[in-house]
């Protein structure tokens, strides 16, 4: 059975009712992107860019090269801008000690504390995109203003550096609960959404995702209700890129919410496609 699932990994995942579900991969660098290709990913749903350069602050030229290699590999790539803070640290980014790092300087909030870093990253991404339909995604967005600011920041870089970007798309992670109450406005601003169930669940249930003893119930109906509401209210494409999307046990429930794109770790792709075909 396992070898059959493996052999079928490049075939599309179509449900019994004939609905095609897109299965994308979560990756963090060129090697994992190559692995994703080998495992049957139809695109990159989440490039966690914070893991591209782990030791030193990269120069722009190296960043361009890294992004270009990944954009060359897949036609559909969603690259998330640096998401440090909380559970993710980088040696070259100085975040002052905080009492509650998960409620502190994280993700897009870096725009306030370290704009130069984001500026260089966005410049590299936009140059490497070379006006292909690359998707740029901002993490930890909590208000429409924050998204507007981040997108304007990117548009300004493109204007100043004369980089054509009319095919580039801008979207956001849904991982902060405040977003749920402003979806109608977000619909007018974003090109796409990706639900980060890891952080969304953390903030919904007020349980740290890395807590040593408290565990979030990944199968809580509350989480599925939230996903269903997002899919219903969103007028732009929605994908799920949190760990939940790669959990074979919940695929029937997830598809019931109406979501059509899942982004999962490469090792799961064959199994998830197999599961979808049986729904
Ligand atoms: C998430 O929060 O669900 C997510 C996909 O992002 P990360 O795990 O990188 O925070
Ligand atoms: Mg997250």
TrEMBL record:
<protein>
    <submittedName>
        <fullName>HPr family phosphocarrier protein</fullName>
    </submittedName>
</protein>
<comment type="similarity">
    <text>Belongs to the PEP-utilizing enzyme family.</text>
</comment>
């Amino acid at each position: 059975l396992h070898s059959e699932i493996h052999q079928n990994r490049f075939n599309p995942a179509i449900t019994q009712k004939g609905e095609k579900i897109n299965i994308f991969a979560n990756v963090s660098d060129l090697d994992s992107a190559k692995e994703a290709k080998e495992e049957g990913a139809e695109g990159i749903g989440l490039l966690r860019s914070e893991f591209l350069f782990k030791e030193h602050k990269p120069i722009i030229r190296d960043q361009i090269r890294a992004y270009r290699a990944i954009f060359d590999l897949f036609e559909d790539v969603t690259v998330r801008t640096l998401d440090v803070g909380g559970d993710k640290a980088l040696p070259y980014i100085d975040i002052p000690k905080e009492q509650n790092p998960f409620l502190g300087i994280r993700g897009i909030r870096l725009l306030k504390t370290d704009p130069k870093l984001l500026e260089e990253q966005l410049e590299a991404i936009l140059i490497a995109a070379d006006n292909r339909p690359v998707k740029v995604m901002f993490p930890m967005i909590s208000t429409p203003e924050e998204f507007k600011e981040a997108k304007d920041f990117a548009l300004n870089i493109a204007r100043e550096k004369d980089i054509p970007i009319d095919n580039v798309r801008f979207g956001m992670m849904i991982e902060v609960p405040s977003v749920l109450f402003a979806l109608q406005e977000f619909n007018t601003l974003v090109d796409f959404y990706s639900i980060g169930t890891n952080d969304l669940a953390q903030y919904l249930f007020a349980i740290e995702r890395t807590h040593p003893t408290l565990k979030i119930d990944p199968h809580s109906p509350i989480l599925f209700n939230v996903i269903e509401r997002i899919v219903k209210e969103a007028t732009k494409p929605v994908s799920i890129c949190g760990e939940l999307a790669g959990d074979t046990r919940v695929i029937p429930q997830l598809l019931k919410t109406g979501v059509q794109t899942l982004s999962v770790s490469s090792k799961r792709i064959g199994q998830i496609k197999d599961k979808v075909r049986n729904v």
